[in-house]
Design a protein that fits this description.
Shape: globular
CATH class: Mainly Alpha
Low-confidence stretches: none
Strand content: under 5%
CATH topology: ADP-ribosylglycohydrolase fold
Largest sheet: none
Number of domains: 1
CATH architecture: Orthogonal Bundle
Distance between the termini: 16 Å
Length: 294
Amino acid sequence: MNEDSERLSRALGAYLGFACGDALGATVEFMSPKKIQRLYGVHRDIIGGGWLGLEAGQVTDDTQMSLVLGQAIIDYPDWNIRAVADNFVAWLESEPPDIGNTCRRGIERYRDRGELFGPPSADEAGNGACMRNLPVVLATLNRPAFFEAWSLEQCHLTHHNALSDAATLTLGRMVNSLIQRRGDEVCRQHALSLVEQFPEFRFDPYPGKATGYIVDTVQTVLHYFFNSTDFESCLIGVVNQGGDADTTGALAGMLAGAKYGVEEIPLGWLSILNRQVTKQIQKQTHALLQMNCF
């Protein structure tokens, strides 16, 4: 596999892995590990259901928001934050099956008042901005200044919080280093730098919480990512913690897919993933990568 093909494999792995983690985790979202064990033993199949009553292979707001952000970048390659916000509004008004309260509040603020961000807020330390940032990462692999600026602008549409910002930038840099094969140690150093900057993100020993609070989300994702040796076991470990399992699953799938490549995603998961979502992801991944000069 040549360098371009390997980069594409890892980028597709990140995006399709993200969607698979979303679909896998949605079934057990808001459940406790004990309830998951009682119902499924070990939850390992994309079967839909859950509190949203999804069809098998259907995704949630994590993947949907990523796709509408990705489309805004493709439509406006020089970046247009209002186009991003407009896409979020259109998505909100399409009556999606799920949307977090903080995301809803920020999108409605823009829709109703035209404000692209609010003041920094401790109430906005959720994972809703971090979860959707992958298209920015793919479009800016060789443009770190653009990566940071675009990431923070899209974050602040709904989540203006230092913990959210730091987590979003860190996971994005980890994905970048994995896609570009800069080594596992570089990837780990990004995570350790986050902990050094904000000690509450410490994930070793693992505190065992998997809520939508960005600290709990990142701790869960990093613990299982660094303590697994393949894509499938990483995602299964994460989603069986329950809690905000669609988002922790999506972010774990993003990192593991970037590390192991699309070929290592179980075919059973890919085959059941919503076909339209799969096609959108494939199309966006190619378009976003083309924005970089390698």
